[in-house]
């Protein structure tokens, strides 16, 4: 390994570069290297220590716990991050577990968003609740709760339009969608921020803004089948306490896995 | 701001009115951190800092009354040059129908960019045809058709093989007299050899004047890898940098241009069909430096 031949200034720099290239961020990377270096002045099990640091930042894995009455999962995130696809995969997973699942097409803005979710509903075995393009997303969400309760659905997953967190009216719209779901008599059990693994330092700004708008309970890290390491989730966990719950590993229905911190850490350091 | 930070570095000690090279090194370390915070790729940031170092150790900076401003000025110039210098106009050479191919990773904004570009080119007097060669993503062709209807540009997409479809799309343009063919393709990862081979084949059979890579402005370190791999596999001629209406610093722009030498022609600045602007390197330099 990198440090088993002893340690030089270069090896510490190489370690920092590995972290930087993983989108951990320059301050976090430098801090982590300082800490590890203080514990390992002559090298040795450095990579193991770093791996341990990453695991302790990420915290314990938190599997999905959906119980009893209608569970609602709200899915949010910036444009193109993988929300609609993730919903299709998650719906399939839950249907395979024997649950009755519905998906709400509350992205009433983007071209063919409804059509895209409709295909995923068919593929996953979930029921689709949708209205015409241009309908009020809150109205779709409200409808979806009422219809899901009436049909004995176990889990309702609500798709929303991609939005940049810098657009306050769109963030307000998201807060409103959440309030409407609650007004309809349901609780939002999980709000997932879907984050593209290739996202750079802007990811933490995204997470902050979405947390302010709708209180995020988990991150789904998508497109981890690429070369990007997704190191930004460390800052999201450390600063906002939000854990990664699932990872997307491809574009097919089965390409969703529960988050495994050990796998993530190994990949980041590879 | 970066200038304020560097002022702090330089104000600590000055001997006989001249800066010590060590102070310049400290300032450059700060500049490197600023670039990394802005998502510039490590190798690109290091290369840029090295170029700036030799200029920063010049008499002009060392003897300056405002060395921080000088270093930032040098930084800005080097950044602007790497980003392309001045705005590069997007020209369509060759005999019609001229082909423009859009490529890039999943979700980067290709389909939206195809429609925006079609609208833009029509406003310049062109007769574009949109070709939907993404047969992978659910409702991808439907998305392009919907956008085409919105802007009044025809969309063609028939067949089940993206490569044959793309080639036939060009034939369709010849048939209808469209003088520009804009081909939308499926998002793909540079680490997926089958999909990169497909992209290469689409390029081979359509002989495009341009292969534009759509890249998301919020991309981090991976931008340099994506840009290099796409360049290698499909000979990218330039970029569209999308989602610049967010607050990402956009260091990816530098990574992409530095490693390919190709220009960024356009900036995507929103979800509407008018949200396509020419790209200005000097403005981007300021945004990256913060
Ligand atoms: N390779 C890979 N591609 C993915 C993954 N998740 C989603 N995608 C792709 O990313 C692209 C965007 O996915 P969408 O589900 O449309 O993303 P979205 O967030 O709903 O997009 P908007 O609604 O437009 O904001 C599609 O081409 C998906 O197939 C993943 O884990 N791996
Ligand atoms: N805010 C903003 N959103 C954009 C911009 N360009 C595209 N989008 C949005 O980003 C999302 C993805 O855009 P698409 O055009 O579907 O991306 P794509 O590259 O074709 O995606 P795939 O075909 O799945 O690879 C959509 O929600 C678009 O509306 C932009 O410049 N600004
Ligand atoms: Mg979507
Ligand atoms: Mg597309």
Summarize the structure.
The complex is a heterodimer of chains A (270) and B (290). Chain A has helices at residues 9-21, 26-39, 46-58, 83-96, 113-124, 137-150, 168-183, 202-214, 232-240, 261-268; strands spanning 71-76, 101-106, 127-129, 155-160, 188-196, 218-222, 244-248, 256-258.
Could you give the topology of this structure?
The complex is a heterodimer of chains A (270) and B (290).
Chain A: H1 9-21, H2 26-39, H3 46-58, E1 71-76, H4 83-96, E2 101-106, H5 113-124, E3 127-129, H6 137-150, E4 155-160, H7 168-183, E5 188-196, H8 202-214, E6 218-222, H9 232-240, E7 244-248, E8 256-258, H10 261-268
Parallel strand pairs in A: 1-4, 1-5, 2-3, 2-4, 5-6, 6-7
Antiparallel strand pairs in A: 7-8
Helix pairs in contact in A: 1-2, 2-3, 3-10, 4-5, 6-7, 7-8, 8-9
Chain B: H1 2-11, H2 21-37, H3 42-56, H4 59-62, H5 67-82, E1 98-103, H6 110-123, E2 128-132, H7 140-151, E3 155-156, H8 162-176, E4 180-184, H9 193-206, E5 210-216, H10 222-234, E6 238-242, H11 252-260, E7 264-268, E8 276-278, H12 281-289
Parallel strand pairs in B: 1-4, 1-5, 2-3, 2-4, 5-6, 6-7
Antiparallel strand pairs in B: 7-8
Helix pairs in contact in B: 1-2, 1-5, 2-3, 3-5, 5-12, 6-7, 8-9, 10-11
Bound molecules: guanosine-5'-triphosphate (2 copies) and magnesium ion (MG) (2 copies).
């Amino acid at each position: 390994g990198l440090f088993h031949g002893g340690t030089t200034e270069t090896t510490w720099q190489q370690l920092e570069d590995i972290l930087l290239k993983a989108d951990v961020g320059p301050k976090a990377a430098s801090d982590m290297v300082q800490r590890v270096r203080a514990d390992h002045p002559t090298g040795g099990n450095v990579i193991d220590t770093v791996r341990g640091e990453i695991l302790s930042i990420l915290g314990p894995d938190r599997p999905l716990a959906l119980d009893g009455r209608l569970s609602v999962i709200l899915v949010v995130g910036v444009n193109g991050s993988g929300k609609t696809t993730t919903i299709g995969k998650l719906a399939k997973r839950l249907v395979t577990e024997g649950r009755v699942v519905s998906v709400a097409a509350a992205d009433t803005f983007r071209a063919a968003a409804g059509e895209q979710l409709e295909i995923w509903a068919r593929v996953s075995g979930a029921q689709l609740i949708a209205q015409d393009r241009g309908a009020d997303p809150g109205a779709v969400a409200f409808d979806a709760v009422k219809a899901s309760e009436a049909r004995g659905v176990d889990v309702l997953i609500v798709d929303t339009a991609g939005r940049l967190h810098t657009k306050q009216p769109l963030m307000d719209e998201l807060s409103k969608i959440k309030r409407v779901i609650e007004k309809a008599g349901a609780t939002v059990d999980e709000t997932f921020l879907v984050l593209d693994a290739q996202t750079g330092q802007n990811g933490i700004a995204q997470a902050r803004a979405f947390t302010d708008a709708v209180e995020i309970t988990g991150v789904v890290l998508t497109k981890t089948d690429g070369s990007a390491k997704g190191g930004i989730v460390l800052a999201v966990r450390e600063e906002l306490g939000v854990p990664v719950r699932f990872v997307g590993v491809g574009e097919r229905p089965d390409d969703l896995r529960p988050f495994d911190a050990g796998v993530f850490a190994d990949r980041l350091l590879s | 701001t970066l200038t304020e930070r560097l002022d702090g570095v330089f104000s600590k000690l000055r001997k006989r009115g001249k800066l010590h090279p060590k102070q310049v090194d400290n300032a450059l370390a700060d500049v490197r951190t600023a670039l990394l915070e802005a998502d510039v790729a490590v190798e690109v940031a290091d290369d840029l800092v090295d170029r700036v170092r030799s200029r920063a150790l010049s008499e002009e900076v060392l003897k300056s009354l405002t060395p921080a401003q000088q270093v930032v000025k040098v930084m800005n110039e080097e950044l602007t040059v790497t980003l392309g210098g001045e705005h590069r106009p997007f020209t369509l050479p060759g005999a019609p129908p001229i082909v423009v191919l859009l490529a890039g990773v999943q979700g980067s904004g290709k389909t939206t960019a195809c429609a925006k570009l079609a609208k833009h080119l029509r406003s310049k007097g062109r007769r574009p045809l949109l070709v939907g060669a993404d047969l992978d993503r659910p409702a991808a062709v439907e998305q392009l058709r919907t956008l085409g209807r919105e802007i009044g540009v025809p969309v063609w997409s028939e067949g089940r093989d993206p490569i044959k479809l793309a080639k036939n799309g060009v034939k369709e343009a010849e048939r209808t007299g469209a003088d520009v063919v804009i081909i939308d393709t499926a998002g793909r990862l540079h680490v997926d050899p089958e999909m990169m081979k497909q992209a290469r084949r689409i390029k081979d059979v359509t002989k495009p004047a341009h292969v534009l890579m759509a890249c998301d402005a919020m991309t981090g370190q991976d931008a340099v890898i994506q840009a290099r791999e796409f360049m290698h596999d499909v000979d990218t001629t330039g970029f569209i940098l999308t989602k610049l209406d967010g607050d990402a610093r956009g260091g990816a722009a530098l990574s992409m241009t530095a490693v390919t030498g190709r220009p960024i022609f356009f900036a995507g600045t929103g979800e509407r069909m008018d949200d396509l602007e020419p790209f200005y390197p000097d403005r981007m330099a300021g945004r990256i430096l913060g």
